[in-house]
């Protein structure tokens, strides 16, 4: 999409003209991006093509990691940028207190736990969370309730496809 079309499409609504009159993404702009998320060793942990296509969001709404959202500020349609987000600004550091030993008797009867297996559990707020089995003993298992990306630096390759408005 050419820059002129981007300006036209994002500025049709007169209330939104300031968001993109210069064709640059700002806080408040709704944008579409392609992205690839990698770890320091190059392992890909997420990318737009694994979902329904480009990611669309309003910059500053904090629906995603704030540093990811802020990474598009100043970009024009077609521009690319690589950003690195430290673990403390992403999913935090790993916390040993989030490793817990539980009795196998607390598992559904049809579940035979294995190291590395993901299970669904409920936290203290009764919200469903994914936990990973890290040890399997005779009568109990150890689960890790840390986010899988906790303690990891995240690298995102971002391409701004369009400033929607």
Describe the protein.
With 165 residues, this protein is mainly beta. It contains 3 helices and 9 strands; from the N terminus they run ααβββαββββββ. The longest helix is centred in the first third of the chain and has 9 residues, at 3-11. The strands form 2 sheets. Strands 1, 2, 3, 4 and 9 form a 5-stranded antiparallel β-sheet that branches.
Question: Beta fraction of the residues?
Answer: 25-35%
- Using the CA coordinates, give the radius of gyration: 21 Å
Helix and strand element order: HHEEEHEEEEEE
Count of all domains: 2
CATH classification class of the largest domain:
Alpha Beta
Number of helices: 3
Model regions low in confidence, pLDDT < 50 over at least 5 residues: 1-20
Average residue pLDDT: 88
Give a short account of the largest sheet.
5 strands, antiparallel
Structural class: mainly beta
CATH architecture of the largest domain: Roll
Number of E-type strands: 9
Our measurement of the CA-to-CA distance between the termini, rounded to an integer number of angstroms, reads 14 Å
The global form is: elongated
Helix content: 10-25%
Could you provide a short overview of the structure?
This protein is mostly beta strands and 165 residues long.
């Amino acid at each position: 999409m050419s820059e002129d079309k981007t300006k036209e499409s994002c500025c049709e609504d007169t209330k939104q003209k300031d968001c993109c009159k210069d064709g640059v993404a700002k806080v408040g702009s709704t944008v579409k991006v392609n992205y690839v998320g990698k770890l320091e060793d190059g392992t890909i942990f997420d990318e737009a093509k694994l979902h329904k296509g480009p990611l669309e969001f309003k910059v500053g709404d904090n629906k995603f990691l704030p540093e990811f959202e802020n990474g598009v500020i100043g970009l024009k349609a077609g521009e690319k940028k690589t950003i690195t987000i430290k673990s403390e600004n992403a999913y935090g550091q790993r916390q040993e207190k989030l490793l817990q030993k539980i009795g196998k008797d607390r598992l559904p009867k049809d579940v035979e736990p294995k190291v590395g297996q993901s299970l669904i559990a409920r936290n203290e707020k009764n919200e469903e969370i994914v936990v990973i089995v890290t040890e399997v003993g005779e009568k109990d298992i150890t689960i890790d309730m840390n986010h899988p990306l906790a303690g990891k630096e995240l690298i995102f390759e971002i391409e701004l496809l369009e400033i929607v408005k």
